[in-house]
Amino acid sequence: MHSEWTPAVARAVRAAQYFALHANAAEVASTHLLLGLVEEAEGKAAQVLDAAGLPLDRLRQPLPPTTDASLPPLGAVAEAILSHAHSLARKLEGEPVVSGPAVVLALLRRDEDLRRSLVAEGLDFTRLERAIHAVGEPPLELHEPLRLSEPTEFIDAARVLDANGNRAREALRVVEDYCRFVLDDAFLSGELKRLRHELTAALETVSLHWRLESRETLRDVGTAISTAREGERQTPLDVAHVNLKRLQEALRSLEEFGKLRDTVLGGQLEALRYRAYTLERAIVLGAESRRRLADARLYVLLTGSLCTAALDWTIAEAAAGGANIIQLREKNLDDRKLLERARQVRRWTRQAGVLFILNDRPDVARLAGADGVHLGQDDLPVKEARRILGPDALIGVSTHHLEQVRQAIVDGANYIAVGPAFASTTKAFPEIPGLDFVRQALAETSLPAFVIGGVNPDTIDDVVATGAQRVAVSATICGADEPRAVAAELSRCLQDRSRRD
After folding, report:
1. For residue 171, which of 11, 247, 249, 309 is within the disulfide window of CB 3.0 to 4.6 Å?
2. Residue 480: its pLDDT value, please?
3. Which residue has the higher pLDDT, 12 or 382?
4. Rounded Cα–Cα distance for residues 200 and 162 (Å)
5. Backbone phi and psi for residue 385, each to the nearest 5 degrees, phi listed first
6. pLDDT of residue 301
7. By CB neighbour count within 10 A (0-12 exposed, 13-18 middle, 19+ buried), where does 476 fall?
């Protein structure tokens, strides 16, 4: 037995060597030393670990059979741990003999990876340290009053993490309530809820006991500091936007101070912060899109060669009948002719007082002064179209299943087209998602959504029965002898639905 070890520690070291031999290890590692310490169920090392919440039954392994084979040496890592335990024994117990609790504390202080894995299994390391100090530390004689004028760095960091964890969760709940109760937006509400739960899970790696011990609300100097603008809110969107900013600020502070505790925690919080930026864009852009398109119900897609009458007359008649948006969709014109046609349509739509959207081509849309562009799934991404057109342009995206709807939202689309609801006479689709998809999309998001594909006076009632308030049509007006009358009939059906809602 080593003269500076208790008999229990000597047996634990011997057991660690057998565990290392059984694992074909060249020398004793931290994990072997831990297995040796917990091998004795009644030993002090096992008792302090069990009291700190570590489930020892899952950790223990049967001691390998004894053998005449040469046992692996302790090695540099184990020797360093036992040397540190020797220093701790002198400090905690005033004795040169190393006990099991001192080895446990030295082991977990030296091997951070092992400590993190045991914490994940349920170990409360703060409680463990406190218990070992309480057992081993002799009474302290104070020759003068003890004055702690400043908190430790750990307490400082804990206060920051506690305050900003609360601030971030509170802000997330406010924004989630806005998306849930004001917007009735299932997708955004779900994303915010997931973000809130992931934040809670990330912060659980920091002991709740540690955070609560550091909390000092009554003496927090920040509680008495405020500005006039903190009490100003004009609209529900103002409430959401302020709390989105509060969320991002809190996450940044959590990220920086979290790195003091755990670099992994810092990385998790950084990823959550970037997701908060994406959600802010979706929420704020969505609010602006709902405002700009609040009255837009009838969206007409026109191709010059398919129109029964002249394009300028068709635009004027459709607008007079209630169309709010005109999209120019020309697949067969070369770039020069497309730009010329787009500039004409820009002039005619401005005269008619309706929005002008160009299909597929953000570059030509910018040159023609269009209000925006509509993109298919194989066209440029929203991000690249936005770089060409700028922040004020309307960008729409065609969607044919829910994942495309969700992607369009986080990409920053201003509106979506959902469908096709029925077979179209102007465009072939490999499959028809139908009205079931329309219902799913409308239930998923509050972003302006136009139902596309085969919508006409014969099918409009079935469309509005899904809850839809917006439709996009092509042949039913483009090929009509009286575009105004058809547009008026479709607009009436949509307005009736809007009044019922």
Report:
1. 247
2. 94
3. 382
4. 11
5. -65, -40
6. 97
7. buried
